[in-house]
Design goal:
Number of helices of chain A: 9
Largest sheet of chain A: 2 strands, antiparallel
Helix content of chain B: 40-55%
Radius of gyration of chain B: 22 Å
Distance between the termini of chain A: 30 Å
Number of domains of chain A: 1
Helix content of chain A: 55-70%
Strand content of chain A: under 5%
Strand content of chain B: 15-25%
Strand order of the largest sheet of chain A: 1-2
Order of helices and strands of chain B: HHEEEEEHEEH
Largest interface: A-B, 24 and 21 residues
Order of helices and strands of chain A: HHHHHHHEEHH
Oligomer: heterodimer
Number of strands of chain A: 2
């Protein structure tokens, strides 16, 4: 592998926590608002972003020595869109229900700043294996946030978790939680809490 | 060498060829399955409009029920479905909405609507897209439509009217146009 286990873990952890996409780099906010009204959607989106980020970082890193700096953005775009379209088609074919719920957001992974951000900030100047772990780490950090937001929003907004009712009929669902404004409130609180916790680092 | 213009062009060209080939491969693999999914979804919608029961988790049950109960005919560019047991009829109507094509299936008992389903729409999320909400679709049941249907904003629609969606006037108008266009063609033929 040419890379000790501890180093891979370090790269992964840095991407996951220290450079956390949402509460450190403030990237990927738009999609995290859009897909977090249910845990199921958040999981599907997370898997998509993990796959796209890890594979496009790996690919960019593989061809990094032959990419002319002036056209690197075009190359990133091409690699990222190819992987994204693959995810979109596979979801449509094998998981039509999830695909219908995510709607246009899968296609929008292409514009997720995290994917392009990792290609530009890491993969273009680092070897293949660390690039893979960096992409995966950052995507996992993003997914972690997505799951927290989705859990809070689904429980308060529908009284359920992963589609299973957890709060009885006595619970009045907070409709605002499943709509976009609800996402803003939860995300705002989340960023505040996380930044306070991680202040010392 | 990697700074030369020729290489910039060359790399982009090579990459586009590789990416296109990869996408073409994925497309060939997934296209038939996606088609089948869409076809099954359409069949389920038609069965729902006629209130025919089937097992939604079993593809075989959907296609078998559909084939044994429903016949499709094409008249003057209108797709018409007939349900054998109840003898009911449904129309598939489509046209351009505010943002894209709206497709809807309407079941009729004489001149009264007995089922209404939007099968396809790409209206503004949260506004026009609400035409596919249950509450909106349900209001059409029981309307008398042989003379067309009128859009009202009052929230108190009569038997020949339907309520528009607040904030989505254009989508509502487009839907009214699509429905009236289809109904007038259908009832003209029926007479």
């Amino acid at each position: 592998m040419g890379l000790g286990q501890s180093r891979a873990w370090k790269v992964f952890f840095e991407g996951f926590w220290k450079n956390n996409a949402l509460f450190r780099m403030m990237l990927g906010i738009c999609s995290s608002l859009a897909v977090t009204n249910s845990v199921r959607n958040a999981v599907a989106m997370s898997l998509g972003v993990m796959f796209v980020t890890a594979s496009s970082s790996t690919m960019v890193s593989m061809i990094r020595t032959i990419i002319p700096p002036r056209i690197r953005m075009a190359v990133f775009m091409m690699v990222i869109s190819t992987f994204t379209i693959v995810v979109d088609r596979v979801l449509k074919a094998y998981y039509p229900a999830i695909s219908a719920e995510l709607g246009p957001y899968v296609g929008l992974i292409i514009t997720n700043c995290i994917v392009m951000g990792r290609a530009e900030a890491y993969a273009i100047s680092n070897p293949v294996i660390p690039s893979f772990f960096d992409g995966l780490g950052v995507a996992c950090g993003y997914s972690f946030t997505l799951l927290i937001l989705a859990t809070v929003r689904e429980i308060l907004g529908f009284g359920s978790f992963f589609g299973l009712t957890v709060l009885g009929s006595w619970w009045t669902p907070w409709v605002i939680m499943v709509m976009a404004p609800g996402a803003f409130f939860v995300l705002g609180l989340y960023i505040w809490v996380m930044r306070t916790i991680t202040k010392g680092n | 060498m990697i700074h030369s213009k020729a290489w910039m062009l060359g790399l982009l060209l090579i990459l586009s060829i590789i990416c296109s080939a990869a996408l073409a491969f994925v497309n060939i693999k997934t296209e038939p399955i996606i088609r089948r999914n869409e076809e099954i979804k359409r069949m389920m919608t038609v069965l729902n409009v006629f209130e025919v029961s089937y097992d939604p988790l079993d593809y075989r049950s959907v296609t078998d029920t559909y084939r044994s109960r429903i016949t499709e005919t094409e008249e003057n560019g209108l797709t018409i479905f007939h349900e054998k047991e109840s003898g009911q009829t449904a129309l598939q109507l489509s046209g351009s909405g505010f943002q894209g094509i709206i497709k809807v299936v309407v079941a009729l008992k004489g001149d009264t609507v007995s089922g209404f389903r939007i099968i396809r729409q790409s209206e503004t999320p949260g506004l026009g897209s609400r035409i596919s909400e249950e509450a909106f679709q349900k209001q059409f049941i029981g309307k008398k439509v042989s003379g067309g249907i009128t859009l009202v904003k009052s929230g108190k629609a009569g038997p020949k009217e339907f309520d528009a969606i607040t904030g989505a006037t254009e989508s509502s108008k487009a839907l009214a146009r699509i429905l009236n266009d289809g109904f007038s063609r259908y009832f003209r033929n029926a007479k």
